[in-house]
Amino acid sequence: EVQLVQSGAEVKKPGESLKISCKGSGYSFSDYWIGWVRQMPGKGLEWMGIIYPATSDIRYSPSFQGHVTISADKSITTAYLQWNSLKASDTAMYFCARGLTTTIMGGDYWGQGTLVTVSS
Amino acid sequence: DIQMTQSPSSLSASVGDRVTITCRASQSITTYLNWYQQKPGKAPNLLIFAASSLESGVPSRFSGSGSGTDFTLTISSLQPEDFATYYCQQSYSIPITFGQGTRLEIK
After folding, report:
1. I want to staple A69 with a disulfide (CB 3.0 to 4.6 A). Which of A31, A82, B13, B30 is the partner?
2. Digitized pLDDT (tens) for each residue of chain A, 120 residues in all
């Protein structure tokens, strides 16, 4: 069974750093792009970027480039989303999903989401 | 960036109704169009990929059509579990973009 399991909810202060994770299982992790999506409270879905774990090829949305870092460790089948300096506006639910790249497939498996709250 | 515009933004309907949601792309995306359903507090769920292909396990009352810039998602006979928010998403070019969502509510 394909699963993406994300790390738990986080509460941080502005300026702090954070790294959240997404662990894949039940499929060949290296062979599928993993994407990250932001959903701010009461709002829609925003694509942040993707990574191909086999090569660590990464593509970012211009809206998020420079503010987040996407990475992966294929040896432990885990992808990451990282901030060096959080802002209150980073408060959101973050989802990882398999796919979400330029193919006909779509995001066919999703993590359960990680809620990030940034507040002083 | 390719802009995706859904209509309507919200919709009230009854169990058993036939419902259609539309999605328009700002340029041609051929059939690189996917539809998702999202319920409160849950991750999105892929319903339709490549504009008209039904994802495995999705009920056949869901269908998609269109190509180029104009697409539709149709639910042939609404069931209670279908009340949710629906998003279209283009996978033609990076950055991947989503429509703003259509909230389907019980009348």
Report:
1. A82
2. 999 999 999 999 999 999 999 999 999 999 999 999 999 999 999 999 999 999 999 999 999 999 999 999 999 999 999 999 999 999 999 999 999 998 888 899 999 999 999 999
Helix (H, G, I), strand (E, B) or coil at B96: coil
CA B64 to chain centre: 8
B99 close to A (CB below 8 A): yes
B94 interface with A at CB cutoff 8 Å: yes
One-letter amino acid at B52 equals: S
- The DSSP bridge partners found for residue B24 are B5, B70
Q: Which two tokens stand for residue B85?
A: 């928010």
Interface membership of B14 toward A (CB under 8 Å) = no
Say which residues have a Cβ less than 8 Å from residue A114's Cβ, sequence separation at least 6. Answer: A6, A7, A8, A9, A10, A20, A93, A94, A95
Cis bond leading into B95, ω under 30°?
yes
Q: Are A90 and A33 in contact (CB under 8 A)?
A: no
A64 Rama class: left (phi>0) / alpha (psi -120 to 50) / beta: alpha
